[in-house]
Amino acid sequence: MTDRTLVVGGALYAEGRLLAARRSAPAHLAGRWELPGGKVEPGERPEQALVRELREELGVEVELLARLPGEWPLARPGYALRVWAAQLVAAHPDDVRPLEDHDALRWLAPDQLWDVDWLEHDRPAVTEAARWQAARR
């Protein structure tokens, strides 16, 4: 048994581009970019949590493709991040809008991944997502 809280993130892809979401809150994270997702609730599998979180935050249905290697500690003690590659199901990337926790979205081509100011804990996950995507090309 662990006291760790698991946070799940989605490396969400559409048309070869990765979705970056800009935080609107809390104040110390606002304006920085992350992979969308959130906390796993008690009794919930991480994969279920990610599908739920992406539905709540973006109003989208996704298909999870692969868990990316790694788990990263977050700035908040006792929290750790795991990331899955995912793709949109039955939605066009231009129709995706932030519903909560974010105020802007950007779909980044592989050569644009570092054009946004990622939160520190998301940077290794973005690196893994780029490796995963490159291996699929």
TrEMBL record:
Tell me which family the UniProt entry assigns to this protein.
Answer: Belongs to the Nudix hydrolase family.
Q: InterPro entries annotated for this entry?
A: MutT-like, Nudix_hydrolase, NUDIX_hydrolase-like_dom_sf, NUDIX_hydrolase_CS, NUDIX_hydrolase_dom
Molecular functions (GO terms): hydrolase activity
Residue stretches making up the Nudix hydrolase domain? 3-135
User: Which CDD domains has this protein been placed in?
Assistant: NUDIX_MutT_NudA_like
**Keyword terms of this UniProt record:** DNA damage, DNA repair, DNA replication, Hydrolase, Magnesium, Metal-binding, Mutator protein
Reactions catalysed:
8-oxo-dGTP + H2O = 8-oxo-dGMP + diphosphate + H(+)
Instruction: Identify the cofactor(s).
Output: Mg(2+)
Q: What is its EC number?
A: 3.6.1.55
Protein name in UniProt = 8-oxo-dGTP diphosphatase
Q: What is the lineage of its organism?
A: Bacteria, Bacillati, Actinomycetota, Actinomycetes, Kitasatosporales
